[in-house]
Design goal:
This protein is α/β, with parallel strands linked by helices. It has six helices and twelve strands. A seven-stranded mixed beta sheet has the order 2-1-3-4-12-11-10. A three-stranded mixed beta sheet has the order 5-6-9.
Length: about 200
């Protein structure tokens, strides 16, 4: 049991339940995290999709923004999907007023880059480090990465745009793998957490 990492899902907004299920299927002990004391008890954290501006403001409101930044700086593994990717970026192109990020990946992201809600789509994405063929990803008002710094590793592109990035213990995807039943991205993240646990 000691090898089973405890991984939180930031439960301020977004598709928390689906991530909890995907993490459990990848042999992690998954739990929602809303408060700094809950964050202190996990080995890793998933920041789900949702609305990035709202999530940023709720994180500040709940006293989570600074503890999140501290844990990321200290090396806690974090995986952000869609809005979570935006929160893990060092810079956002055209951010909403008052929108803050946690940081962790030296990248610049563009919000809603793949279009509006009614332009959502599903696509097969080849991800470096994932065996067994392409990952099914759901793109819902998804961001893409405009550029990355020297330390960030691009691990997937779609339509000529960067859609998955890893930098040390931080992982981010434009798409939602938790909505597909394909849990290989979560398994990759659980392995990342296990490696530093």
């Amino acid at each position: 049991m000691s090898d089973t990492p405890v991984i939180g899902v930031l439960a301020l907004q977004g598709d928390v339940r689906e991530h909890l299920i995907a993490l459990a299927s990848a042999d992690a002990l998954a739990r929602p995290v809303r408060r700094p004391e809950e964050l202190a008890e996990v080995d890793g954290l998933v920041i789900p999709g949702g609305e990035s501006t709202t999530m940023s403001k709720l994180a500040v409101l709940f006293g989570m923004m600074e503890p999140l930044r501290e844990r990321v700086r200290a090396g806690m593994p974090v995986y952000g999907t869609c809005a979570g990717m935006i929160l893990l970026a060092e810079k956002i192109l055209d951010p909403r007023s008052g929108q803050e990020t946690v940081g962790g990946i030296d990248m610049i992201v563009r919000r809603n880059a793949f279009g509006r809600q009614n332009e959502s789509f599903e696509a097969a994405v080849e991800v470096d480090g994932i065996d067994g063929g392409p990952v099914e990803g759901v793109f819902i008002r998804a961001p893409w990465v405009e550029s990355v710094g020297a330390e960030a590793e691009v691990i997937a592109e779609h339509g000529g745009h960067i859609v998955a990035v890893r930098q040390r213990n931080v992982l981010a995807t434009s798409f939602h793998p938790e909505l597909t039943g394909d849990h290989r991205m979560h398994a990759l993240f659980v392995d990342m957490v296990r490696a530093v646990k």
